[in-house]
Every structure is written in C-alpha cells, then in structure tokens.
C-alpha cells in the first residue's frame, strides 16, 4: 500500500513514523508513506497557497491551484488512478474501525490536510472523493488527523502486526471493549490479580474475559452492545447488570 500526504507542515510527520510498528512496516516495505509539501506547488516567489475569502470574513482559505496540481502530479505517477483523495476535516464522516478496515483494502490513499478557515469549495466538489473527521472537536489542522488515520489503517495491513499483537481481537472489531489485563507482580501494594487468571483453566479464563468485556462495554459504551454478537445468556447478563 502507498499513502501520499499533502501538507503545509511536513515536519510534523517525522516523529510518529520514525518509531515502533509504523517504522517497522515502512522498513519492511509493507507500506510506502510519501509526505509532500503543498508549498512546492504554491504560486509565485513566496509559494502562496492561501488567500482571503471572497465575501469577506476572518481567516484564510486554501487556494485550489496547489491542491489540484499536487494531487494531479501524484496521480500521474501512480499505478492506481482510482485512489481516493481524502480530505481531513471536522466536516467529514466520523472515523472508526470500520472505515479503517475499508481503507486498508485499497492500494493507495491520497490524504489532504486542511488548514486555515477551510479550502476552496471547488476542491471539495471536483477533487476530493471522501472527507474524514477523527471526532467532534476542532484541531489546528488535518495533520494529526491524518496521522491517526494512517496509524489505524497501517496496523491492519497483512503482516504489519506480529501474531502476538494481532488485530483480530481489537475491541472495536468485535464491538466490545477490552477486558482488564494484569501482569507481574501478582500482588502490588496489596492489590490482587483476580484468582481466575492464575488458575491455568483456559476455559474459565476465556469466560471471565468475555464477561468482563461485556460488562465494561455495558458501563462505558452501551451503544456498542447493539452491534455486538452476544449469545442469549450474554444478553441476559447485560439486562441484569
Ligand atoms: N481538522 C481539524 N479538526 C479535525 C478533525 N476533528 N478531524 C479531521 N481533521 C480535522
């Protein structure tokens, strides 16, 4: 998979992709991430990419030329002309694990990080094919949102996670939150690890974990339970608690 990012702040991306699982995936050529500086397509000596809004008002608007030309030059070199062009914006559809899974199946993504008061509407109408928000709050720009999307998508690519880090048990894949985890020491400051986890009885442990997942989801995110695949006994558990 290849991901191209168009941004006014390319340096913001150096930290997150230089560490851990994403770095390992890049080193193993499972993913190519190209960060493009939008100013390279800016106009004039000052590489201008924004201008005042027609009709007045505060803030600046991203001009169409640099966004169209940058995207077209990426597409011209690409083997995947149908790659989606995704704008990160609080106005987009709200990102979740389902959208991450949908994007992981594609060969290329082009991500555009929005800035200032917004982008010229003609970019939305004639260039962008999808708009994604990472939540109902406003960031200073689309960069952090792009990093979140990339991280969630890349870890789902085949071979990126080792078997011990497998994504198939991810809480949001099953619409249930994770069960509590414990590690050594068995007793810490007098706080005990639940006995069942020390029992060696794998069936009992699996049952306890499943119940804990369901109860935690019920208390914290009850709306998720509607999509969860629960047995009749498990449904009963949620109605008594
Ligand atoms: N840009 C600013 N805020 C954002 C958000 N919540 N999601 C995606 N892009 C953004």
Q: Tell me the domain tally.
A: 2
Largest sheet: 5 strands, parallel
Distance between the termini: 45 Å
Q: CATH superfamily name of the largest domain?
A: SPOUT methyltransferase, trefoil knot domain
Please identify the structural class as seen in this structure: alpha/beta
Radius of gyration (Å): 23 Å
User: How confident overall, as mean pLDDT?
Assistant: 95
Query: What is the third-level CATH name, the topology of the largest domain?
Result: Alpha/beta knot
Q: Give the C-level CATH assignment of the largest domain.
A: Alpha Beta
* Heteromolecules bound: adenine
Helix content: 25-40%
Model regions low in confidence, pLDDT < 50 over at least 5 residues: none
CATH architecture of the largest domain: 3-Layer(aba) Sandwich
Number of helices: 7
- List the helices and strands in order: EHEEEHEHEHEHEEHH
User: In total, how many beta strands?
Assistant: 9
Determine the strand fraction and express it as a percent band: 15-25%
Strand neighbour order, sheet with most strands: 2-1-6-5-7
């Amino acid at each position: 998979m290849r991901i191209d990012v168009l941004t006014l702040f390319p340096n913001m991306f150096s930290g997150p992709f230089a560490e851990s699982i994403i770095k390992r995936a890049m080193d193993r050529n499972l993913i190519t991430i190209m960060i493009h500086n939008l100013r390279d397509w800016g106009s004039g000596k000052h590489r201008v990419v924004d201008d005042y809004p027609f009709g007045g008002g505060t803030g600046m608007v991203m001009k169409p030329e640099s966004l169209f030309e940058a995207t077209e030059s990426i597409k011209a070199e690409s083997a995947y002309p149908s790659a989606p062009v995704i704008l990160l914006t609080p106005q987009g559809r709200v990102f979740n694990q389902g959208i991450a899974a949908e994007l992981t199946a594609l060969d290329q993504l082009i991500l555009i990080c929005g800035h200032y008061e917004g982008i010229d509407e003609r970019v939305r109408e004639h260039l962008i094919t999808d708009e994604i928000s990472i939540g109902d709050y406003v960031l200073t720009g689309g960069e952090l949102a792009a990093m979140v999307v990339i991280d969630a998508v890349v870890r789902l690519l085949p071979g990126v996670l080792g078997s011990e880090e497998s994504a198939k048990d991810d809480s949001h894949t099953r619409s249930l939150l994770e069960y509590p985890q414990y590690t050594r020491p068995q007793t810490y400051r007098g706080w005990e690890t639940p006995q069942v986890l020390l029992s060696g009885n794998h069936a009992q442990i699996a049952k306890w974990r499943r119940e804990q997942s369901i109860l935690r989801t019920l208390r914290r995110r009850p709306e998720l339970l509607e999509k969860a695949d629960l047995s009749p006994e498990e449904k009963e558990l949620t109605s008594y608690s």
